[in-house]
Write a structure and sequence with these properties.
It is built from 28 helices and no strands. It is mainly alpha-helical and 621 residues long. Among the domains are: 117 residues, Serine Threonine Protein Phosphatase 5, Tetratricopeptide repeat (Alpha Horseshoe), CATH 1.25.40.10; 66 residues, Arc Repressor Mutant, subunit A. α7 runs antiparallel to α8 and α15 runs antiparallel to α16.
Length: 621
């Protein structure tokens, strides 16, 4: 759904009213009919008709693109060949036929390069990045988008167009980072896009970004906040009479209400989306809206109504080759048949859903479908198969959890590296300022050395410059301290993650012990993991960073509490960093209950009553 929205945001101007659009299409068709000569003008008419009909009447639009390509080849019109291939690629992209889409995009890119048409290259690059996104190659999609940003910055001359194109790329990056689970980076990119569109007063594209911010909030399960952004977007779309955009915005808003269990408002939104989709003849949006409403009716146990909606959606999805939408439809039909105790039929529908989902490697879908398959098989008393698919669902769940953890570390690293570069630039700037000021002071001393009546002015200026220099040096020290704090936090998180992973491996090894033939191999694995868990090198690195940030902490503790052991000093250092009990437990490689006992023993040794705060005492050291 969002993929199509990005294409529109970037490649075409906002929709005109439905009646105006119809009149324009009729006018173009009449002009095409009267145009007897195969020339560049005829190609332009065919391209315009393709653009106006690609979402409402995709097959008709595709025929216009093919005709434009045929004429362009005949008259050797390279721009027409490039554009025709690009529009055919768009047709296949919107139907998830990614290999065909890439084939035509590569041809288009070659011809745009031949005629050195940079804007065409920007458009094709943008579309190719969407193909990579569709196939789950998000890192490649992000790389292509950043390459597109570079092209725009280096070659686009029109100021407003440049800002619009840059904004669209940041919006695309926001969507891809959202899909990766990097929500902080996604929000940063969305805000950059929002700034661009506000700069050129482009309310239509601004509304699209507001909708994307709503998606980020919904992904974080902040549904009430997401509703606020969706409504802002809808207000703009209503003002601009953007019916097509209102379709998708209402689907998103309805989903947020559904998650908040406000089913009446959710139904109103889905009904509105269906009406809008029918008005603009957008079959893809209609299938999405019908599926959403069917899911709601399923929750409310209106099985008969839900089934009819799903059959309508199924017909559209099959015609338009919307594979993931069709997979969702089959799964919802499976659930209806399950509730009607028709387990075999339910299993068949579930099987179709899985077949459509596997080629796309859509893991969240497969997790849900496998889990439900287990439920159906259990009802059919096929317990071995039920356990198998339950395990498959759990494997995907574990995989997604692992990916989420990795993504969190990647996100921290990306933000950390960005801030690090910004701080280095600021430090360099301050050093340059210091050198300039030193040079200025030296020159002033030389000039004013022999002038007696200005001695007082020299003294005043020297004091003033010294104060300025001291201020800059303090700022530099603050920046360095802040940077070291970030290094310390990053190191602590990596240490916690390492121990968490090792503990998990250790547990798995214990679980497998009973099924392993070689007890010796098992014991060797446990010894290796225990050695790594007890390795003090990581802690020594952590202690080094900690001493740089909190210089007098260890000496203050030893001076005030000479009986504190090294292990208790470690615990106090981690408390000083305000880490959670879980994070401290992972780093020290002890249980959560062990942390409680350690804190109790430490309180006793430090002479703290139950009313006093251990955390406050540590912070004040």
């Amino acid at each position: 759904m969002k993929k199509i929205f990005i294409i529109l945001l970037f490649l075409i101007t906002p929709y005109v009213s439905l009646s105006q659009n119809t009149k324009l299409i009729d006018s173009l068709k009449l002009e095409l009919k009267n145009r007897k000569v195969d020339d560049t003008v005829k190609v332009s008419i065919l391209i315009s008709l393709n653009e106006k009909l690609k979402y409402s009447k995709p097959e008709e639009a595709k025929n216009y693109a093919l005709k434009s390509l045929e004429i362009s080849k005949k008259i050797n019109y390279k721009f027409g060949i490039a554009s025709g291939n690009m529009h055919i690629g768009d047709h296949y992209l919107n139907r998830n036929q990614n290999d065909s889409a890439l084939h035509y995009y590569n041809i288009s890119k070659k011809y745009f390069k031949d005629i050195n048409y940079i804007r065409g290259l920007i458009f094709v690059n943008h579309a190719m990045s969407i193909v990579k996104e569709s196939t789950g190659e998000l890192d490649k999609a992000i790389a292509i988008t950043r390459e597109t940003l570079k092209l725009i910055n280096e070659h686009e001359e029109d100021s407003d167009s440049k800002t619009k194109f840059i904004g669209a790329q940041h919006d695309a990056l926001s969507i891809r980072y959202t899909e990766k689970g990097n929500y902080k980076i996604a929000l940063i990119e969305a805000l950059k896009a929002l700034k661009c569109f506000e700069e050129i007063n482009d309310d239509y594209r601004k509304a699209g970004v507001l909708q994307q911010i709503g998606q980020i909030e919904a992904s974080l399960k902040n549904y009430k906040t997401s509703i606020k952004y969706y409504k802002e977007a809808i207000d703009i779309f209503n003002k601009e009479e953007e019916i097509w955009s209102l379709t998708y915005a209402n689907i998103s808003l309805g989903a947020a209400y559904q998650n908040l269990e406000d089913y009446e408002k959710a139904k109103n939104c889905f009904d509105a989306a269906i009406d809008y989709a029918k008005k603009v003849e957008d079959k893809m949006a209609l299938a999405e809206a019908l599926n959403s409403l069917a899911s709601l009716e399923l929750i409310n146990k209106n099985y008969s109504k839900a089934k009819q909606l799903l059959l309508d959606s199924k017909e559209i999805s099959e015609t338009e080759n919307l594979q993931l939408s069709l997979a969702n439809t089959y799964q919802n039909l499976a659930e209806i048949e399950y509730y009607n105790n028709k387990y075999s039929t339910a299993l068949n529908y579930n099987d179709e859903a899985i077949k459509l989902t596997k080629p796309n490697n859509a893991l969240p879908y497969l997790k849900r479908f496998y889990g439900y398959r287990s439920k159906i098989l259990q009802a059919l008393k096929k317990y071995d198969d039920a356990i198998f698919y339950l395990n498959e669902s759990q494997k995907i769940s574990d995989s997604l959890y692992s990916v989420t953890k990795t993504q969190q570390l990647e996100e921290l690293k990306t933000i950390y590296e960005t801030e690090k570069k910004e701080q280095e630039i600021l430090l360099q700037k301050n050093e340059i300022d210091l050198l300039k000021q030193k040079g200025e002071i030296n020159n002033l001393y030389k000039i004013l050395f022999g002038i007696g009546f200005l001695l007082s002015l020299i003294a005043f200026y020297a004091v003033r410059q010294k104060l300025k220099r001291s201020k800059i040096e303090r700022e530099k020290l603050d920046l360095e301290l802040d940077f070291k704090k970030k290094e310390l936090t990053t190191h602590a998180l990596h240490l916690a993650k390492k121990n968490e992973v090792l503990e998990s491996l250790k547990q798995q090894a214990k679980d497998f012990k009973s099924s392993e033939n070689s007890v010796k191999g098992y014991n060797q694995l446990i010894r290796t993991i225990n050695f790594d868990l007890k390795d003090d090198n990581n802690w020594e690195n952590f202690s080094k960073y900690f001493e740089e940030v909190h210089k007098d902490f260890n000496s203050n503790v030893k001076q005030q509490f000479p009986n504190v052991t090294p292990n208790e000093l470690r615990l106090m250092a981690l408390l000083k960093m305000n880490l959670s009990s879980k994070e401290i437990a992972n780093i020290l490689n002890i249980s959560h209950e062990g942390i409680k006992k350690a804190r109790y023993r430490l309180r006793k040794k430090l002479g703290i009553t139950t009313e006093d705060s251990l955390q406050d005492l540590v912070f004040n050291l």
